[in-house]
Design a protein that fits this description.
Largest sheet of chain B: 2 strands, antiparallel
Number of domains of chain A: 2
Helix content of chain A: 25-40%
CATH architecture of chain B: Orthogonal Bundle
CATH topology of the largest domain in chain A: Rossmann fold
Strand content of chain A: 25-35%
Number of domains of chain B: 1
Family (chain A): Belongs to the ABC transporter superfamily.
Protein name (chain A): High-affinity branched-chain amino acid transport ATP-binding protein BraG
Strand order of the largest sheet of chain A: 6-7-8-3-9-10
Oligomer: heterodimer
Radius of gyration of chain A: 17 Å
Radius of gyration of chain B: 19 Å
Structural class of chain A: alpha/beta
Order of helices and strands of chain A: EEEHEEEHHHHEHEHEEHH
Order of helices and strands of chain B: HHHHEEEHHHHEHHH
Helix content of chain B: over 70%
CATH superfamily of the largest domain in chain A: P-loop containing nucleotide triphosphate hydrolases
CATH class of the largest domain in chain A: Alpha Beta
Distance between the termini of chain A: 34 Å
GO molecular function, one term (chain A): branched-chain amino acid transmembrane transporter activity
Strand content of chain B: under 5%
Organism (chain A): Herbinix hemicellulosilytica
CATH topology of chain B: ABC transporter involved in vitamin B12 uptake, BtuC
Shape of chain B: globular
Structural class of chain B: mainly alpha
CATH architecture of the largest domain in chain A: 3-Layer(aba) Sandwich
Number of helices of chain B: 11
InterPro entries (chain A): AAA+_ATPase, ABC_branched_ATPase_LivF/BraG, ABC_transporter-like_ATP-bd, ABC_transporter-like_CS, BCAA_Transport_ATP-bd_LivF, P-loop_NTPase
């Protein structure tokens, strides 16, 4: 459903992404793993239109996303949970969730999705009227995921969802990602926590300084010697 | 009784500063720029009302309504032509452009209306109120200005807090990229902000010129700067801040003119700005903005 072909992205004169190609099939969880600065976040931001690519194509259902206005991409079924959560701290939990449904117009359907999100994240329901800025890191991550789900996405891009969370919360977040995927949403996951990412992914790509150096079945990559050494700390 | 009169005049002037300051603070919050041409939009509003009312003899209500429409379009046009192309430019370039637009508007008005100041007829039909056997007299302008400004502020607050567009505005002001990810059209949101700020400025213009009567091409500059001071005073980017800052500033200005020195009124206003910025650089209600490194 999503195919990235020969993507090249520059920050000024520095080339951050040096010709990356990968694809995501419907229903999959795809992990992009790699060290800090490998270009994982840049790839997601380019897909969402926040950064313009110098070359290459990002095909989504046959359409090149680069020709679409960035604010119209979410309405096509692509939601992005950004690195660092980036919830709107001056809005309440409820208002943040409504922001997630910004491009949707049917009030009843929005209400229905809201109920689903509250079922998935009961904590958000408890804190419905609390300012998002006062939530803990874990709760903010839940809110960022809930907010993304409010757009009823076909594919969800997740950028470092486990960053800065305690081991128990990391466990919880990955369980949630799995269950989001089970209910029919494709997931493109960017993670530094390679072990966790590979444990839930179908396939994975290993990114090193703007290049994909390895790709394949997640289970196989987990047993790959060089992956073990570089990313799994074994 | 004298004190009460001065206080009411101060609140009245201050509430006009407040609603003008809303334009500065909203634009700053959302586009992170100071629109120095905002004051001159007030002047344009004044001339529109003057022309329609005094020259063409139109009804004051329709004149103000027309001024609101013209100012809204003017604000949006300024944004579209002068500021939008500079979205990614350094803030200094935007600042200089804003000053350029300000001079452009002033000189266009000079070209059309000449330098001589016009006598602006009040648009407010309300008669002055005399209380306590005439010891306290409240002008019709004050009677209308204070409640009207309060209604505008409450209305705007309600719009921003409760409407979808308003939420979009808060989202853009806090995190543009995250707002885009939600599907917010940032350019449209900025245009709406300019439109609202300019429409409110037109009302401010009608109220201010009705109370002070003098209208010339540079008439917008001083109230514009003072409203800007009010916005900074209250905490730039904060809407309640603009309201509090504006009213405080108006009261301080009128009281210092009355009790300290007529000539030093403006000096005292700016002195207060300097002191506030030294003591609390973010203003009364301003929040510290944490830049992501």
């Amino acid at each position: 459903m999503l195919e990235v072909k020969n993507l090249q992205v520059y920050y000024g004169v520095i080339q951050a992404i040096k010709g990356v190609s990968f694809r995501v099939e419907e229903g999959e969880i795809i992990a992009l793993i790699g060290a800090n600065g490998a270009g994982k976040t840049t790839i997601l931001q380019t897909i969402s239109g926040l950064i313009a690519a110098k070359q290459g194509e990002i095909l989504y259902g046959g359409v090149d996303l680069q020709k679409i206005h960035p604010h119209k991409i979410v309405a096509m079924g692509i939601a992005h949970v950004p690195e660092g959560r980036r919830v709107f701290s001056q809005l309440t939990v409820y208002e943040n969730l409504l922001m997630g449904a910004y491009t949707r117009t049917n009030k009843d359907e929005i209400e229905e999705t809201l109920e689903q999100v509250f079922t998935r994240f009961p904590r958000l329901k408890e804190r419905k009227n609390q300012m998002a800025g006062t939530l803990s890191g874990g709760e903010q991550q839940m809110l960022a995921m809930g907010r993304a789900l409010m757009s009823k996405p076909k594919i969800i891009l997740m950028d470092e969802p486990s960053m800065g969370l305690s081991p128990i919360l990391v466990e919880e977040v990955f369980d949630i990602i799995k269950s989001i995927n089970k209910s029919g949403t494709t997931v493109l996951l960017v993670e530094q926590n390679a072990k966790k990412a590979l444990s839930i992914a179908n396939r994975a790509y290993v990114l090193e300084t703007g290049n994909i150096v390895l790709e394949g079945d997640a289970k196989e990559l987990m047993n790959n010697e060089s992956v073990k050494k570089a990313y799994l700390g074994e | 009784m004298n004190f009460l009169t001065h206080l009411l005049n101060g609140i009245s002037l201050g509430s006009v500063y407040s609603i003008i300051a809303l334009g500065y603070t909203m634009v700053y919050g959302i586009a992170k720029m100071i629109n120095f041409a905002h004051g001159d939009v007030i002047m344009v509003g004044g001339f529109i009302i003057f022309t329609l009312m005094s020259t063409l003899g139109l009804n004051p209500f329709f004149s103000v309504l027309a001024a609101m429409i013209v100012c809204t379009l003017l604000g949006m046009t300024i944004e579209r032509i002068a500021y939008k192309p500079l979205r990614k430019a350094p803030s200094l370039a935007v600042l200089i452009t804003a000053i350029g637009v300000s001079y452009l508007l002033q000189n266009l008005a000079l070209l059309i209306y000449g330098a001589e100041s016009k006598s602006f007829t009040s648009v407010i039909p309300v008669k002055a109120l005399s209380l306590f056997d005439g010891r306290l007299s409240i002008s019709g302008e004050t009677l209308v200005t204070i409640p009207l400004c309060i209604v505008i502020m409450i209305g705007l607050n309600f719009f921003i807090k409760k409407s979808k567009t308003g939420r979009g505005m808060i989202a853009v002001s806090e995190d543009k990229e995250a707002a885009v990810l939600m599907g917010v059209n940032v350019n449209k949101t900025i245009a709406i902000t300019f439109a609202i700020g300019s429409a409110i400025a037109a009302i401010g213009s009608a109220l201010m010129f009705s109370a002070y009567h003098n209208l010339s091409p540079t008439s917008g500059a001083m109230p514009g700067i003072k409203a800007f001071v009010a916005a900074v005073f209250g905490g730039i980017g904060s809407i309640p801040g603009a309201m509090i800052g504006g009213i405080l500033l108006g009261v301080i200005e009128i009281l210092s003119r009355a009790y300290i020195s007529t000539q030093l009124g403006d000096a005292i206003v700016f002195l207060i700005l300097i002191v506030v910025l030294l003591v609390k650089p973010t203003g009364i209600l301003g929040r510290k903005i944490q830049e992501k490194v």
